[in-house]
Design a protein that fits this description.
The chain is mainly alpha-helical and 451 residues long. It is built from 17 helices and no strands. Helix 2 runs antiparallel to helix 9, helix 5 packs parallel to helix 8 and helix 10 runs parallel beside helix 13. The two termini are 18 Å apart. The relative contact order is 0.13.
Amino acid sequence: MAVQPEGKLLFGMGAPLAVSMMIQAVYNIVDSIFVSYLGENALTAVSLSFPIFMLMISVAVGTGVGINSLISRRLGAKRHEEAEHAAGNGFTLMLISMLVFVLFGIFGTRPFMRAYTANPETLEYGVTYLSIIMTCSVGLFMQIYCERIMQSQGQNFYVMLVQISGAVFNIIFDPILIFGLLGFPKLGMAGAAIATVGGQILSMLISFVLIFSKKNEVRLRAKNLRLKGPVVKEIYTVGAPSIILQALGTVMTLALNGILIAYTETAVAVFGVYFRVQSIAMMPLFGMTNAAMSIIAFNYGAQNRKRVMRTWRLALIAGLVMMLVMVVLIMLLPDQILGLFQATDEMLRIGRAALTIIPIGLVLAPVSIVCSVMFQAVGNGSYSMYLSLARQLLVLVPAAWLLSRIFHEVAAVWWAFPIAEVVTIVIALFMFANIYNTRIRTMPPEPPALA
């Protein structure tokens, strides 16, 4: 990460991540496609469950971002022992986080679903799905932990293998367990959840094999599992804002579900479908920006301004091109996409508007996302948190509520997304200018060893 050409390094690290994250997104959408055969109530239940599932992922990924950033910076600064302290403390933090969600899975799923639906079929579908996903979350947390350890060292090919294995397991066993094929029992919604956690556990096991059997620059050692205040603080200096940043998506989804369900439960199902389609569109970008964050963090630790800025510019250009292609495809194929989910006439009517209006804002989304990556890589994760807060709560939700009140039509709600994106980009550019002037511009143009 210190000497290879930035473009080659970004592609070499980002392409495996992009492929693996695309496959992750595909198996999430395949999960919903199979569930839709159980009926629209089943699809609505999964959509209502989605915010809590994403909250769990937010905590795991956010903690992982803090671990990744700290390890990369310590390796860049040649402080190897401190990098291993970060790895050990990160493992313990992941276990603690997992236990919190296991408790929610046992005690909190039914009250949560009752707050959103009085439909008994939707309620039972949601409780079944969400309780299994939460109580069996060890695979998710440990898989993400191992992935971040490997990413911090640039081992993204192994990350791709881990994620593909879990995705393939899920895709194969979804129809088998939902519909009772090949001699397996017909489990319905429970089958969808079991296939998901089964894929996560398989990925976790493969990750552990790679971490413990392969010669890694960073080792997980028992002596580093005991939490140390300074290490935990540094992990969450970047990780906590990232958790909040991603958890804001949960709050936003809950709020929008509340606005949409006032029209019809079908609108909630459409919103859930759109989010899965958007995840496919965004995952290549997130794969590339995850790689960019490791490269930028490493070279920021090594005080190499030229490589930091070159990587950022390349990530921005690549992100804009990728999103333009994805948005064009979504806007040209709304009926085909909705048809995958057994869409009714009402779902088609609402969904066509959603899949042609919301993506307008995605075209320029890489600007704020790549700026956010820079903030996290240099250790200022709070800026990322403020940016996400502005987009998802301060602008998007109020705009959606206001549009629903003014126009009294569900299609009006979708325009809140492009509005929020434009406002966010303006804020991101002001923040980036401040970070550049205070942290990047003051760095030497070449690393100290080469000056």
